Amino acid sequence: MDALKQELKEFIIEQLNLEDINVEDIGNDDALFGDGLGLDSIDALELIVMLDKNYGIKLTDPKQGRAIFESINTMADYITAHRTTN
Amino acid sequence: MKKVYINSIASISAQKTFDQAEFLTDLIDHEAIVIPVVNPNYKAFIPPAAARRMAKGIKMSIVASKMAVQEAGLEQVDAIITGTGMGCLRDSEKFLSNLIDNDEQYLTPTSFIQSTHNTVGGQVALELKCKGYNFTYVHSSNSFESALLDAKLQLASGEEDDILVGGIDEIGDHTFKLQELVGHVKREAVKTSELLKSKTSGAVFGEGANFFVLSNKKQASSYAELIAVKMFNTLPKISVPETATAFLANNGFSAEDIDLVVLGYNGDVDYDSCYDVLSHELFNDTQQAYYKHLSGEFNTASSFGFWLASKVLKLQSLPEVVKLNDIKSSGFKTVLLYNQYRGENHSFTLLKTC
To answer: Min CA distance, A1 vs chain B (Å)?
Structure first.
């Protein structure tokens, strides 16, 4: 689980070009959107594609994203429970 | 018709031109086949949250446009007109590579939304909060001149009063490799200071963003008056001198009135002869300058030439490094710029002191 969380943080920093942020700067419970990391709707699309591409998870209901992408912890929990690829 | 003035200039180039107090004094003598820009401190101009999705061309342009608007003493411009030959090339390449690598699946929006030619104009407008006319011209090496002509017509007719005009292009790795394959790039690295001595085919490539505030109101910061700009998609080499003569005559000038000719020599032995017919014939007795050894060749490199000519007219001095011949003008009142790329898309631009 910790490896997955590390992987998610690295992906978010690299893919979303968060130049001044390190893995250590993102807490597992920090909010990814809004006042937390400050991600926006375009980033949400990037994360949805990442779930599909890296873990074989297709989100059909966009409303689901709000809860799944709340923090690194919620993302990791959802991926662990629903992943179809290793 | 109102006169059109260049009220401010800003350049991000392969030299340290972002320091507006300097004029090509601390030069970088590159030795390469492609020369990237010297990056300014982008963070001083762009908030990190906005910068993270911006390609280099956008960042360069936002810095240059903010510098130009500031120098013109404006809070806002009426319109933004940009010229770019290739647009946001890096994100275009990234998007297309993803398309191929992922078998047309898993396409993400970021690189797509920034892969168009008019992304720069849009992002500059967002940064400046300018809701006015916004247009991007894409016409190979006439892109910048097309933007210039649009701005001139609107300012002369009084439709707008202050227009931000820019020429932007960025280097894209894949496109550059293709240009190498077709022989448009020099095969050997050439020093900046020895570009015209190379006598080989192809050019040293570059990138840059040059922005200007053009206005129909003269002010203390004004650099020069833009008299005319004219473009030709095709123009036989043999016709270049007579076309230049006709262009000058149409604007009430003759070759003898020109104090400085700024030529777009890029060291390509196959096409520099277009400049030779002006340099060695019509303007044989006129002081001449060149600039692509400093900027590299790109579709809007002529905007760097425009920056150079503007600065010469305001400061009344010509840096040694751009001098093409030994003739010395007593002063710089009228400057003619001529540019073309690979024998196509020729342009003549006429500036004078104001």
So the answer is: 25
Among A20, A38, A49, select the one facing B106 at the smallest CB separation: A49
CATH code of the domain containing A42: 1.10.1200.10
User: What is the domain class of B5-215 according to CATH?
Assistant: alpha beta
**Which of B177, B201, B175, B179 minimizes the C-alpha distance to B188?**
B201
ipTM for the assembly: 0.76
Tell the CATH topology of B224-352.
Answer: Peroxisomal Thiolase; Chain A, domain 1 (3.40.47)
Query: Between chains, do A42 and B105 touch, taking CB under 8 Å as contact?
Result: no
B109 contact residues in A (CB cutoff 8 A): 42, 45-46
pLDDT, tens digit, 9 for 90 and up, residues B240-249: 999 999 999 9
Q: Which residue of A has its CA nearest to B102?
A: A53
Q: Is A37 on the interface with B (CB under 8 A)?
A: no
**B211-to-B208, B218, B272 alpha-carbon distances in Å:** 10, 18, 26
**Tens digit of pLDDT at every position of chain A (86 positions):** 789 999 999 999 998 988 788 999 999 999 999 888 889 888 998 999 899 999 999 988 878 888 999 999 999 999 999 998 76
Task: Determine how many CB atoms are found less than 10 A away from the CB of residue A65.
Answer: 18
